[in-house]
Amino acid sequence: MYRVDIFKSIVIYVLIGLTLVICVFPYFWLIETAFKTRVDAFAVPPVWIFKPTLAHFQEAFLNKGFSLYFMNSLIIAGLSTLIVMVFALPAAYAFSRFKMFASEHLFFYTLVSYMAPPIIFCLPLYLLFSKFHAIDTLQAIILGHTEFNLGYAIWLMRGFFEDVPRELDKAALVDGCTQFEAFYHVILPVAMPGIVVTCLFCFISSWNEFLYALTLTGHTSRTLPVAILGLVTPLGTNWGQIASVSVVITAPVCIITFLLQRYIVRGLTLGAVKG
Question: What domain range includes position 19?
Fold first, then answer.
């Protein structure tokens, strides 16, 4: 019996190891390509030990203006996430605590923008922002990303708030707090893991978004997912620069996820165990 348990454990660890290798190897290859010369990148058989170079990063971010696109992506994702949370937190709290007339219908309507295909809203938004001469501005794409993230954030935060015991609200009200003070000083700190998870999901969604960024931006407000298309030219594909830009695109998400993993785990399991 003991040997059978050891064998099962070995098999499980081997399967986990193989799965990890399959998942991580493409990203490892991407990072290697970003630091390889063109000769090393296309070498057959593949070169595993090589002299790293920063030429691709310098060419893309210093000579081709990708540093501007990186800042655009950072500003758009950060501000759109902030605006979404400013509106989503009180709205989700109201949906979770108060029974209003047709509240379930109103809640469903907030999800429409997230449930519907994004292409449905692209033309109306383009016509609207064109009328106000807002195409190729950061404001336009920030509002566009806010539009499709807001319903999702309200839906997600409503679930987190519903898992917070209502007795905490009542206790705060008994102690003399107003409804807003109870929300701000009591409920928000308890739901902080869920807030972090929602912020992270909204940030990643905005950071990686392509369709709205392609439709509403031009040269000035272009984001990294759109700008990377410019590296595919009729004269050839700059694979090294594509790899270097891809590393920069994925790095902030990986770093933020790693730093906030404690909150992410708590947020995803919030309310999973009922006392």
Answer: 2-41
